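Job type: complex structure
Entries:
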Amino acid sequence: MPNVPSSMSNGQAPKKRPETILTAQRLVREYASAVLGVCMAYTRNLHDSEDMMQETFFKAVEKIKTLKKPDRARSWLLQIARNTCIDHQRRRVHTRPLPNDLPNPPQQDHENIERLYRAIARLSETYREPITLYYLKQHDCAAVAQTLGISEPAVRRRLVRARLQLHAILSEDNS
Amino acid sequence: MKSGECNEYRETIAALALGELPRDQVPAIEQHLKTCPTCSELYHALQQEEQVLRSTFQVIVDRTEARKDPLIQRLTESHDTDTPIPSNILAIGRHIMSNKLTRFAVAAIVIIGFLIGLQQLTGSIDPAGVAWADVQEAFLAQRWIHLTYDNGSEAWHNLVEGKRYYKDWDGRCVYIDKVLNIRRSYFPNPGTYIREDRPVILQDGSIPPWEPKTAWDTIVGHVESLSENGATQYAQRHWEAKRHIEKTGTQTLIRFDSYYTDAAGRRLLIKQLWADPVTRLPVKKRERLELAERHEQDREFITGVFAFPASGPSSLHDLGVPKDLPIDKTYDKVPDAAVAIIMDRVKAALARFPKHYRALQWGNTQRDNIGLTWRSDQRICHHTYFNMDAEYYPDHHLDLPATEETVFQWTQTQEPGVISLFEGERQYSWYRTNFDFETKPPEVRVMRVRSDYLMGSYSKPIENQWRLEGHDPGQYTIIKDAPKDLAAYVGLRSERGDIRREFYLDPAHDYICVREIWWKQRSGQWEKQRDINDVAFERLPQGQWYISKRGDNWNLRVTVLQEDEFPADTFNGEKLLEGAVIETY
């Protein structure tokens, strides 16, 4: 066995760049909030969003070998999420609930979440994903831009308009 | 400004409420808000909503975080897809090298790596001038570390995923997921299940966080910092490391030598690690085997060579572990309330048992060894005597059957063949290498005590009668279908793969285990492997029970002692070292 088996140790250029390694674990850790953001934009309540998020990951893991370019994982995953939500709306697909399902949030939070979902559902479609992702991604426009594959100014523009629309809807809901 | 003109400010106000307005635009809009009640009202309404929105989303974020681990667990279990996606490395490589810019970047990374290595050797490069993130990224390109030892053992580290695989020379295989803090171990004997546990739990019950590290940080980092900081005391063990430069031909390597001060106070060279400062990669490793392994493998050191392949094992099965084995989880098992009550009673009985005594155990035939245990609280000394053949060794022969007194008196005229001593911090195994009672010196193995629980193999009569103590109660269930002749007892069952053990405890006799049945599953049927029963009891003056006889197998007598009644030097480890060949580590 040679002492220095790696090509790098001979001072040669590395033949590959850092690989993107996708496992179930990595998909969930990196993309769960983005997937949930998309699911929130397409569903009517938190439970459905969470179920769709989970369903998305199950589908993704089943299809993972079809993903030829791992660096496209995010957009690939979000497209699965969108399709899953649309399928759900159309067919009410059967989902696989987690066995150790979390309890419902406290009453006040629960009401706020329901209100939020009603409002999101009434937003223009273009605005839904930017706004859910913005709040789920810790108010980071750059992260939203990266997730949606659009420019940061475009995200900011949509966000501001979405926010005003949301205000109008919430004010109406209050009255 | 008239209110009708305010429409154009609405988006600016929304941006301000979101905190997304560029700083240079803030003063102007704040000035406007001071003078325009309509806009001011909108701004305050947005601000209030913002608080509610953020806290509402935070609830959702927290729920998502809490869902991640169970979801990963389910995905992993149901799909067995922790196989990395086969990324088209060659295509990526071609892509990089076909582009002028990326080719330049790769060259730059290699040069930076080289400069850093040089800096390690000469200290001549300004570290601030090095794009460290790029270098780290380049090193992470080495996703797998593969270590091949010359005794047949192998180890793989996945630097990106925090996964480790080990295949030992004897077929034992281990998989560790550093992120989920899960360890799966497979032992060829019995080879019927995979054991899963949590390798590290911090004192507050949390899991230590894991982050991807370079090959250097993973393999070399610890010993490098030890060599810089001098010696360290870890888990009551003294370690130190020294750094050397070693030149072989045109290559210059750093060699780290690690020393360990053993139980007998000797400084031993335990590990040597060679690393290349230019490529920042480990090259070779030499390790001293521990005592038991040295004897098993009949060698003192093993040497491993590092490689950095593009892929590694994706599961234990790739290491040769049979598929479809059940996984036995040893953690997160909450004992049912009834088991917990029984275990508490066992513990209470054990706590009531005297802590200072002598226990003599002997059989009825010559081939049975004679055991003499001395216990003084947490110190235990167990002597084993061999009853030799009367014809050849009349001086070392005992006629059987015999009474306790006769046997004890006989032991006092003999030298034991084996002494096992736990004297607190250290444990000693003293034994004769031959039984001719000639002049060949005995051997002593000295080890630091590794477990707080010493009531193991040498603690008669504890070992005979409360065998459950020290086990995880979560693995037991109450036996509800016990045979009629065992109805008076409490039955506990543990099942691991195709092995089942049943313990029947006697509530009338301090919850002592009166019967132990071992089962093994063959072709779906449970077959009895071993049945230990037929016990007789004795009672100590303070009322505690113990097993004094098990069938025709053995007899046992316990004599409670005071602290000053133990023979001199019973627990004196130093005494055992006199005139003996000492082995440590």
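Summary: Chain A touches chain B through 67 residues (CB under 8 Å). The mean pLDDT of chain A is 77.
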